[in-house]
Amino acid sequence: MSGIWTPNRRSVLRTLTGTAAAAAFSGSLFRQEAFAEELLKTPAMTEGPFYPDKLPLDTDNDLLIINHSITRAVGEITHLTGRVLTATGSPIRNAFVEIWQVDNNGVYLHSGSSDKGKEDANFQGYGRFLTDHKGQYYFRTVKPVTYPGRTPHIHVGVSRGGKRIFTTQLLINGHPGNEKDGLYKSITDPLLRETLLVDFKPLPDSKIGELTANFDMVLGVTAEELEDGNTMGVPQPDRVTRRRR
């Protein structure tokens, strides 16, 4: 991967180097079957009940700063990157990627969330990004924390041509809550489980303890099954300018 997309208007964002996003495919994405190597498809997981029932005014890919506020959200700053790929490994361009998660207090951007009233007013809670020609996406967010009954996770939705084509969740690799999580345990294939586990690693030379995380998604479609790149009907990431490093 040759670079990280970052929004121009976020001058506070660092240029990322040496992150997990620059790595080639993880070996966990592959499985040997019938003497042929094929991409492991990322398992789908439920959207859950807490997709925002009212989107924030700011819906860009930086969840730490709302509009032009000078106060950022509380939590471990995480640069989340990855690619959206077909079953044959081709990048899916113009894929509309959404993420939503709890803030550092464990509160969703949803009226029915547990501990409503204790939310971090500076955390956006939701973000969106349109993949480039290499299928790449980028978000700046916080490392997820637990929610009652759930291990820490981030919800991810992928749409194309105005239709949601995939929904899943990423989890923290090695977190003790994973093995007690009912949704995670419902995926019985250990190799498929592994594709949902993400390493949150220190960002080299960061003076404020920033983290990097990389989550590649392999969808169960081929390039031939996708439309010709049309995104009509898909809401576009507003106020975000993508820039190659």
Key structural traits:
245 residues, mainly beta, Protocatechuate 3,4-Dioxygenase, subunit A, five-stranded mixed sheet, 14 strands, disordered C terminus
Describe the fold and architecture.
- Strands 4, 7, 11, 12 and 13 form a 5-stranded mixed β-sheet that branches.
- Strand 11 and strand 12 (211-214) form a beta hairpin.
- The chain is 4% helix and 27% strand.
- The protein has helices spanning 182-185, 190-194; strands at residues 6-7, 30-33, 36-39, 77-85, 96-100, 126-130, 136-142, 153-160, 163-172, 197-198, 201-202, 211-214, 217-218, 242-243.
- With 245 residues, it is mostly beta strands.
- The longest helix has 5 residues, at 190-194.
- The chain has one domain: Protocatechuate 3,4-Dioxygenase, subunit A.
- The chain has 2 helices and 14 strands.
